[in-house]
Amino acid sequence: MAKTKEDLPGSSRETDCRFLRACRGQPTDATPVWFMRQAGRYLPEYRAIRAKHGFLEMATTPELAAEVTLQPVRRLGVDAAILFADILLPLPAMGAPIRFAEGEGPIIERPVRAAREVEALRAADPGDLAYVGETLRRVARELPPQVALIGFAGAPFTLASYLIEGGHSKNFERTKTLMWSAPELWRALMDKLVDTTIGYLRLQIASGAQAVQLFDSWVGCLAPADYEAHVLPHTRRVFDAVAAAGVPSLHFGVGTATLLPLMARAGGDVLGVDWRLPLPEARRLVPGRPLQGNLDPVALLAGPQAALAAARRILQEGRGGPHVFNTGHGLLPETPVEAVQSVVELVHRGAPRA
Amino acid sequence: MAKTKEDLPGSSRETDCRFLRACRGQPTDATPVWFMRQAGRYLPEYRAIRAKHGFLEMATTPELAAEVTLQPVRRLGVDAAILFADILLPLPAMGAPIRFAEGEGPIIERPVRAAREVEALRAADPGDLAYVGETLRRVARELPPQVALIGFAGAPFTLASYLIEGGHSKNFERTKTLMWSAPELWRALMDKLVDTTIGYLRLQIASGAQAVQLFDSWVGCLAPADYEAHVLPHTRRVFDAVAAAGVPSLHFGVGTATLLPLMARAGGDVLGVDWRLPLPEARRLVPGRPLQGNLDPVALLAGPQAALAAARRILQEGRGGPHVFNTGHGLLPETPVEAVQSVVELVHRGAPRA
């Protein structure tokens, strides 16, 4: 990216923000960087709060959620804060209670598998998620002007997979079976998830989110033809609504090498990819689109030398166009904080040209 | 594929076998079909034996292993039998005992993480795996001449990942860390795994295996640059040895869309892909190479209509060159036998031209 800073329309806050400029395909003085799950267990200050509060309690209490959202900004000097929340938070507001069991991940109390269970769900009233708006307002007040505030939501497919499977899944048997064998029921479920997600993201934008990321974390389990037929139209409805709200959007999934052009059609100003798909190859697949990624988070566990070598490669591979540096999946709990700090410094300093 | 049968060199058994002809890129009268994990829990006759014997006992007792290898041939009319075994069987012969815990998957009793643990491993003496040769000889005696007998082994990377992690892994933290931070140790471990695998596959070929498949099941967790630097040279040594032995080889992994050209360079007459990578796209990546795959095994759970529609699509997409019909990963325990039977019939009958 060019080192010059241009004067461009927008508030001075937005003009000063590397992350938002890169999302819009504008030149930046350095590559912006943040990390998925940057607010998490690898930070001692996070663990100190987590020791006293349950995960869901933290995510639904604005004071606590705002504090852990801000922790990595103070500690790392990243270019964006991302709301501390969980993609499943809207589900209880739809009528599907959730809980987080220690060591087991999320559990949907009453999985959704039949017509009457889909009918019993409602599109969430954003008022039931007002606590998320309050968290964002608290964060926005504290955040330096050059640091962007990112909101997020789960994409309809990934949310549907949790609702149908009842939690994490390895093979997504029930999700795919419902999608293939009961397409009307699938559409009805996706419609409610899309409406919920649109309302939820509008609430976040109205509360201070300057960009939003849609996490379709598990969509990489699908063949492209299935994505195109059963996911793309629904995800596109979410991105169309975000575009109308005027903030940049990011579209992320894992293992999406063969889905990326379809995901680009569904929407997202920025496409997030993991380390399996090198950035130059991703640029070939979605020409002209800003990219986000794609350091393997495990590289941060492999010692300073390996971590910096891997980060340098990503930085160089990202040079073909607008690039937001990130990991290709969330930071792992065992990540050394120093490794993350040194990668932020490297990215801001810029790697020597290859 | 052309419907004509040509007279070509080779034993009459091999000339008659659709599977072996397709592996060699020769025309066949119908698309050959078999399934990964076709000998498994979805078959009542398998469960009847499994009820009386442990998994490892079944895999290491030639009489039992031969019987379950033959079960799907009788039941389904597939074009190939694959040895009933486990990719981890060579590990105990290397000095790394394993066990299979109910519901937990395989466990390596003493994970390999440091230099002295790598040094303590030996390349397996194929004599310690003689029971696998005996299983293959028993199967070869029973198999109709038109049905091929496939041997197999785990690829060095996937075996290393089990040894290092101690079992299944989600993020392969320890494997990648060792690979990146201790490259000499990694090479020493890979060398022992390659030597073991070559000896093991030669034993299988000498015992009647007419083709061998190398399962690099978890290699899809790697970035292409890491595959090229740390895996390709080792895997290539295995395929070079198999090529010298004169039987066709198949190279399989999951989620390998961005690795496929490198996997093709490592070797394998046939490249196996999963449903994430459509066969026409795979052909573009590795032109001229016979392909194997790539039905989503979950499609077999979704009712007869969805299963046949999905199989028909794969069959049509496979038409651009030599194709072995298979699932893109192993059959799932809840698969209805009738769904598998009807797909075999469809493949042999041939789908109407699109």
CATH architecture classification of chain A? Alpha-Beta Barrel
Overall mean confidence score, pLDDT of chain A: 94
**Class derived from helix and strand content of chain A:** alpha/beta
Please give the radius of gyration of chain A in angstroms. Answer: 19 Å
Largest interface: A-B, 35 and 35 residues
Q: What is the domain tally of chain A? A: 1
**Beta-strand segment tally of chain A:** 9
| Coarse morphology of chain A | globular
Low-confidence stretches of chain A: 1-12
Strand content of the residues of chain A, in percent?
Answer: 5-15%
Largest sheet report of chain A: 7 strands, parallel
Helix-strand pattern of chain A, N to C? Answer: HHHHHEHEEHHEHHHEHHEHEHEHEH
Task: Give a brief outline of the structure.
Two copies of one chain form a homodimer. The first copy, chain A, is an alpha/beta fold and 354 residues long.
Structural account:
Chain A has 354 residues and is an alpha/beta fold. Chain A has one domain: TIM Barrel (Alpha-Beta Barrel), CATH 3.20.20.210. In chain A, 47% of the residues lie in helices and 11% in strands. The first copy, chain A, contains 17 helices and nine strands. A seven-stranded parallel beta sheet of chain A has the order 1-4-5-6-7-8-9. A two-stranded antiparallel ribbon of chain A has the order 2-3. In chain A, α15 links the parallel β7 and β8. In chain A, α13 packs across α14. Chain A is globular and about 60 Å long. At the A-B interface, α10 and α16 of A face α10 and α16 of B.
